Amino acid sequence: MKNRIYFFTGTGNSLWMAQTIADELSDCEVLAVKNGMDTDIPAGLERVGIVYPTYGWASPLMVVDFFRKAKFPEQGDTYYFAVTTCGGLPINAIPQANVLLAERGIKLNYGASVKMFKNSVLSYNMSKQAVKIAEQSAKRAKPVIRDIVEKRGTAIKPINRFLLRLHLDFMKDIHDTDSGYIVGDECLNSIQTTKNNPRKHSVHAGLLALIKWKNFT
Ligand SMILES: Cc1cc2nc3c(=O)[nH]c(=O)nc-3n(C[C@H](O)[C@H](O)[C@H](O)COP(=O)(O)O)c2cc1C
Fold it and tell me: N or C end of the chain: which has fewer CB within 10 A?
């Protein structure tokens, strides 16, 4: 019987996680969650998994959308699992999937988080810690993969409503957060002055990505 894993990724961690699980399952397809995808899930699969990053203590909008739009067959004996990769605070990312799947008549048998590379790359020295973090991530992934191979179940916590509200506030404008960016000469000049110092330069580039330069001329 076949297995299928859907993944959504921004920077590759969740793709790595999905592929690593798939490598341990015989006969497993790995499919991206993306616009225009086929949302029909065939009946009779042995396992259906979804792997995605935590965004703002919960699930990315693309994944929420997938849970709402996917055409789920009768669950039958299919084992459903969700794995979120995160920087350390997954909070609602699995409980939210549990609720959204329950609304579609599907029981989430297993949910887990795996701490990996934070993609807030300015908050730590990634280049110095890359090898160590990769090793730790692979170690943390192992028991999760074993659970999925053995089709173990987990109790999934209820949603933290307060943090979900903060998350929804954070997510509601996320698609338009770059709409007010204007990079003026003053800004480019200051990048120019830091370009020979890679660390300062990357901090600057990061700040550019974080600050909304509204009405800047
Ligand atoms: C917009 C955004 C919000 C994030 N929010 C959280 C969070 O609330 N908790 C957490 O532990 N990690 C958070 N992260 C870190 C990612 O979940 C983590 O780096 C993840 O492994 C990235 O997976 P990917 O490479 O598949 O995109 C966030 C990252 C982004 C880009």
Answer: C
The residue type found at 139 is: K
CA of 90 relative to ligand 1 center, distance in Å:
9
Nearest Cα residue to atom 1 of ligand 1: 55
Q: What pLDDT score was predicted for residue 133?
A: 87
Element (H, E) at 92: none
Taking the domains of the chain in order of start, what are their residue ranges? 3-167, 177-210
Of 17-26, 83-92, 121-130, minimum mean pLDDT range: 121-130
How far apart, in whole angstroms, are the C-alpha atoms of residue 78 and residue 65?
21
What's the pLDDT score for residue 130? 84
Q: Which CATH code for domain 3-167?
A: 3.40.50.360
Q: 126 C-alpha to center of ligand 1: Å?
A: 15
Which candidate, 24, 22, 23, places its Cα nearest to that of 48?
Answer: 22
Indicate the Cα dihedral angle 24, 82, 171, 199, nearest 10°: -30
Q: What is the pLDDT of residues 15-28, one digit of tens each?
A: 999 999 999 998 99
